[in-house]
Amino acid sequence: MKYALAVYGASGTGQSSLTALSFARALLAAGHEIIRVFFYQDGVHNASSLVSPPQDEVNLPEQWQKLITEQGIDAVVCIAAALRRGVVNTEEAERYELPASNFREGYELSGLGQLLEATVEADRLVTFGD
Amino acid sequence: MATLHTVNKAGQPLELCLRALNPGDSVLLLEEGVYALYEASDVLSDLLRHIAVYVLEADVLARGMTNRDDLDIDMVDYQGFVELTVANDKVVSWF
After folding, report:
1. Looking at residue B87, what is its pLDDT?
2. How many CB atoms lie within 10 A of CB A73?
3. Which residues 6-35 of chain B have a CB within 8 Å of chain A?
4. Cα–Cα dist B73/A92, whole Å
5. How confident is the model at residue A94 (pLDDT cuts 50, 70, 90)?
6. Where are the domains of chain B?
7. What is the mean pLDDT of residues B64-77?
8. What three-state secondary structure class fits A125?
9. Which residue is closest to A126 within chain B, CA to CA?
10. Range of the domain at A91
């Protein structure tokens, strides 16, 4: 089956990012297809390259990126939610004249329409709320 | 159209979910929602008369809890979570 996942929770708050990641792994193990992971609201922090949890804790953005790049998953980060939280790629950093960027490779900044499109195309949408 | 409802907190998300249930739907308690096993056991035992209720094993174990023997609630792993999303036509998340 084709799945779309929506992740609303940050890596450093709550549990939903970890739940979503565990679910995504189980989906792939069962032979399903993930057509898109959409990071929305606080979930955009999962695309930050600056997240540095203590060494004995799982680095969720790193784990997400690993899954996304290894499996070639389409990962979209809501651009409006990301900009207001300071998660920006080099292009947006230039546009807004910001001193730095912190966007991980393998993700794309785009609009909410991408969530709608994935919802229409997928057999199932599973949302992981904060 | 059977719907799987995921509930990640025992308070308001569970209450709102209860209002939206239709016969044939299923409920999966996960994250903080697994506390409903003890905090809202009356509600659950009532619910179990016409709705299938599941709990996510990893979240039960992470909180040092066990499933209730007196309630007919199935404990599922992530694979079971995936199977529930296949068995239902859609998934609604309450959080």
Report:
1. 98
2. 19
3. 6, 8, 30-32
4. 49
5. very high
6. 3-94
7. 96
8. strand
9. B91
10. 2-128
Q: Residue A85: what pLDDT? A: 98
The ipTM assigned to this model is 0.96
pLDDT of residue A78: 98
pLDDT of residue A37: 98
Contact A129 B95 (CB under 8 A): yes
Residues of A in contact with B77 (CB under 8 A): 26
Q: Are B76 and B4 in contact (CB under 8 A)?
A: no
Please indicate if any CB of chain B lies within 8 Å of the CB of A124. yes
Which CATH number fits the domain that encloses residue A50? Answer: 3.40.1260.10
B85: exposed, middle or buried (Cβ count in 10 Å: 0-12, 13-18, 19+): buried
Provide the domain count of chain A: 1
Query: Does A23 qualify as catalytic in the annotation?
Result: no
**Which position among A7, A75, A78, A82 bears the catalytic label?**
A78
Write the CATH number of the domain with boundaries B3-94. Answer: 3.40.1260.10
Contacts A–B by Cβ distance under 8 A = 50
| Tokens (6 digits) for A4 | 């779309």
Mean pLDDT of B52-80: 97
